[in-house]
Amino acid sequence: xxxxxxxxxxxxxxxxxxxxxxxxxxxxxxxxxxxxxxxxxxxxxxxxxxxxxxxxxxxxxxxxxxxxxxxxxxxxxxxxxxxxxxxxxxxxxxxxxxxxxxxxxxxxxxxxxxxxxxxxxxxxxxxxxxxxxxxxxxxxxxxxxxxxxxxxxxxxxxxxxxxxxxx
Length: 167
Fold this sequence. Notes:
This protein has five helices and five strands; from the N terminus they run βββαβαβααα. The chain has helices at 32-39, 67-90, 100-106, 117-131, 142-154; strands at 2-8, 14-19, 22-27, 47-53, 95-98. Strand 2 (14-19) and strand 3 (22-27) form a beta hairpin. Helix 1 (32-39) runs parallel beside helix 2 (67-90) and helix 4 packs across helix 5. The radius of gyration is 15 Å and the shape is globular.
């Protein structure tokens, strides 16, 4: 059995797994215990790998939102990211920290110049629905599904790509 996992650690992040028997999705906002319960089903699966969207703490958007909102969302985002990485390491699942631009380009998505955040997110959702018509795609799980597709596409160990456990 082969499992390709995508993890979007966003504020309303999700994880998605694509297997031969189907696709499962987990909301990260349901808490670490639920995320671990979902992820632990892949313990010991020999052909399992993951792609997680790389994050760095960067409180931006200050001109559009209140400072406290920005700080809270940055803390949630980075907390989800570090927590998901730790879970992948504990589960011995090899993974790649992948930048948003890299995975988006690999699944055929390029952010349009001047495109609004809302329009961009809706286009990502539409792309995920095209690739996974059997799944109810939402704004919350679209990026995770696309990251799983990226992992699936790249796990053939194409040149320049290496799934690695990063310390």
